[in-house]
Amino acid sequence: MASIDSTVASIIDAKPPGECSDDNDLFDSLENDPCLESFREQRLQQLHDEISRAKHLRNQEHGTYTEIKDEKSLMDIVNTMADLCVVHFFKSDFQRCGIMDSHLEKLAPVHFDTRFLRISVENAPFLVTRLKVQVLPCVIAFRKGVSVDRIIGFEGLGYSEDTFATRDLEQRLLVAGVLVRQKLTGSQDTKSAQHSGITVRKDRAPVNSDDEDWE
Known about the structure:
Elements: H1 6-13, H2 23-29, H3 40-59, E1 65-67, H4 71-81, E2 84-90, H5 95-107, E3 115-120, H6 125-130, E4 138-143, E5 146-152, H7 166-176
Parallel strand pairs: 1-3, 2-3
Antiparallel strand pairs: 2-4, 4-5
């Protein structure tokens, strides 16, 4: 699936989620595009088509952070319904899973080319075994059904062991190729919260930690 045109993306990003349904309003916003001077009609048609595609993605729950209740539905989405997916395997009573949720919830509305999903490990025994999910939180990035990156705990995020900013997670997913373009800046991102008492894993082997080793 091709990425959303950058002009259309900037227009839709500027609109609150509930205000993206008026086609005429969105099309009027295109009139200020400086690229239209030399090829106005062709460019307008292209951008109109892009707006329709962007709206279709939103109607397919792109732009939301969605909990999937069963692993069959998750596999259908990852393998056939969305080219770019970020999946958080979580356990509801784990503190660090909640922290990861808060960052993914901020990324989902601005990266609508990508599906952001979460599933409880208790509802995904087959996938947990097949993907060797042992330490939580575990975030796996997929391109066309193929795993391209895995974040275990807060491994590789931020500059300290127990805190990171949403833009750090965004950058990691950009490098993995599951986000189309950078959306967050330092001024847009919320300040990283300090989470005392958390020790982040440095390897992929399970450890005896109530927050991470869930088995």
